[in-house]
Amino acid sequence: MAKQDYYQTLGVPKDASAEAIKKAYRAAAMKFHPDRNAGDKAAEHKFKEISEAYEILKDEQKRAAYDRYGHAAFENGAGARPGGGFGAGAGFGAGGFADIFEEMFGEFVGGRGRAQAQTRGGDLRYNMQITLEEAFAGKTATVRVPSSVKCEDCAGSGGEKGTHPVSCPVCHGSGRTRMTQGFFTMERTCTHCAGTGRVIEKPCKSCGGSGRTRRDKSLNVNVPPGVEDGTRIRLAGEGEAGLRGSPPGDLYIFLSIEPHRLFERDGADLHVKVPIPMVTAALGGPIEVPGIDGARVRLQIPAGAQSGQQFRLKGKGMSILRQHHRGDFYVHLAVETPVHLTKKQQELLGEFDKAGGKGKSHSPEAEGFFAKVKEFWQELKE
């Protein structure tokens, strides 16, 4: 079953603001949360759908990818996880309404390690343009990506060599601080340690205590045969380095295919328009057309060929992703009327026209059309 549009799932228009999306999610999550609908499988399924939709639409990068590519932007191994990735899908656990309250009130109600999850490295996007021939055959490309990498001097710890992080003196290692106000006790992320529970007394001089530095890195990207325009390739762990040794993000390669000067692609099939001389169309004869694989394809044109006539060459089209067979190749004829005729050539064509066809028309379609026109005019006169 096809997935429902994420905007429809949340009941918001495609140009909805982030605040409107958040408000719609809160209302729907409160209504369908399993804690309020015990044993109701339909409510449980609906809660999963709205959670998945909100996971995508609340993030600017994910939302932009979804707006352009739809659900296809999150296929092939993109699972949901806190704080990173283009992945869709969100479940629910034993936290009950605390999950919803955390989304509503942010840091003031138990974050359960959200700050630590946010230290994961950011995902990166790289746009790669390839030719149709490269999409057919596949290729290995080397790309240079500006990124954050693990600091070599401190091995990503953020501290000087020989030192170790110590327990945060403010939150005593919990990563959370509490504040009592009247009858309420509110808990929030410790600002001193950013929720990690540990602090670095002697930060690394090279990275300033972050555990990462800015640097371009070169990566080899394998583009498989048969990719289409908009295909996304995910390189796990090749995004930005995480803060102070946290896991890195992912790198996403988005492919776009250049228009070809000869071929038009339609999925796995290829089409080419071939102009042929009038004489070849009339008498028939062989022609050669190039294949996407560089081979020369020989085609026998039958006598009396017409413009628009097509020939199908099975298995001569594009490669198909992760399959061993190919699409088809369609050759479309375009009969070319001769131009720049010499006087002699004009005379010969005139003689040809006068010679007739011994009871048969040389241009049956034209004669049939004008016969209908004559009948039409005759009917108008009556």
Automatic annotation (TrEMBL):
GO terms for cellular component: cytoplasm. Coiled coil: none annotated. Residues 138-216 form the CR-type domain. Residues 5-70 form the J domain. InterPro entries: DnaJ, DnaJ_C, DnaJ_domain, DnaJ_domain_CS, HSP40/DnaJ_pept-bd, HSP_DnaJ_Cys-rich_dom, HSP_DnaJ_Cys-rich_dom_sf, J_dom_sf. One of its GO terms (molecular function) is heat shock protein binding. Keywords: Chaperone, Cytoplasm, DNA replication, Metal-binding, Repeat, Stress response, Zinc, Zinc-finger. Its cofactor is Zn(2+). Zn(2+) 1 binds at residues 151, 154, 204, 207. Zn(2+) 2 binds at residues 168, 171, 190, 193. Pfam families: DnaJ (PF00226), DnaJ_C (PF01556), DnaJ_CXXCXGXG (PF00684). CXXCXGXG motif repeats lie at residues 151-158, 168-175, 190-197, 204-211. A zinc finger (CR-type) spans 138-216. Transmembrane segments: none annotated. NCBIfam families: DnaJ_bact, PRK10767.1. Homodimer. Participates actively in the response to hyperosmotic and heat shock by preventing the aggregation of stress-denatured proteins and by disaggregating proteins, also in an autonomous, DnaK-independent fashion. Unfolded proteins bind initially to DnaJ; upon interaction with the DnaJ-bound protein, DnaK hydrolyzes its bound ATP, resulting in the formation of a stable complex. GrpE releases ADP from DnaK; ATP binding to DnaK triggers the release of the substrate protein, thus completing the reaction cycle. This is Chaperone protein DnaJ.
